[in-house]
Amino acid sequence: MRNFEGIEIGDRRLVSRVITEQDVETFAGITGDCSPLHLDEEFAKKTVFKGRIAHGMLIAGLISAALGKFPGVVVYLWQNLSFLKPVRAGDRIEASAEVLEKVSERSELRLKTTCRNQRGEMVVDGEAKVKIMELESSGEGKTAGL
Fold first, then answer.
1. Within the chain, how many helices (H) and strands (E) appear?
2. How far is Cα 67 from Cα 118, in angstroms, rounded to an integer?
3. pLDDT tens digits for range 65-74
4. Could you tell me the sign of the dihedral formed by the alpha carbons of 70, 76, 77, 78, in that order?
5. Beta-bridge mates of residue 95
6. What is the pLDDT of residues 20-55, one digit of tens each?
7. Where do the domains of the chain lie?
8. Half-sphere exposure of 87 toward its Cβ, with a 13 Å CA cutoff?
9. Cα 126 to Cα 115: distance, rounded to the nearest angstrom
10. pTM (2 decimals)?
11. Which residues contact 105 (CB under 8 A, 6 or more apart)?
12. Alpha carbon distance 28, 39 (integer Å)
């Protein structure tokens, strides 16, 4: 319980990453989401996006990395997301998770989750609930799914 007790409302964890062409292609290969919006520049130029875009879930996945910076082992319980703006290879994305609420008896946190691009524009907005499991030794946390 010591890891959970050290977390305060308003605490925030951040991760920043430049999204690369290789990230998009690897994500497509892993998930099987090979939409031409992500992989075919000529097709994507003819859409409302005017070019290839990264997978929304690739970008949202950076939130998981931010959650992993909390102490203990972070287990996702749920996440809601709104995708607000497209992200392209070359964009720097900062993912943030901020504690909104603590439920001490269950070691759960409700968090505001966002991703912003290098211009400070919010590209993903959401909220998550996680459970904090204790680690025997100190150190940075890990993120796990159920």
1. 5, 6
2. 20
3. 999 999 989 9
4. positive
5. 15, 115
6. 999 999 999 999 999 999 999 999 999 999 999 999
7. 2-19+54-144
8. 32
9. 9
10. 0.88
11. none
12. 8
| Burial class of residue 28, CB neighbours in 10 A (0-12, 13-18, 19+) | middle
> CATH number for the 2-19+54-144 domain, one of 3.90.1110.10, 2.130.10.120, 3.10.129.10, 3.40.50.300?
3.10.129.10
Under DSSP, is residue 59 helix (H, G, I), strand (E, B) or coil? helix
Q: Which two tokens stand for residue 8?
A: 């305060």
Q: Can you read off the two tokens belonging to residue 60?
A: 């949202």
**Identity of the amino acid at 76:** Y
What six digits make up the tokens of 18?
Answer: 């430049």
d(CA 138, CA 73): 11
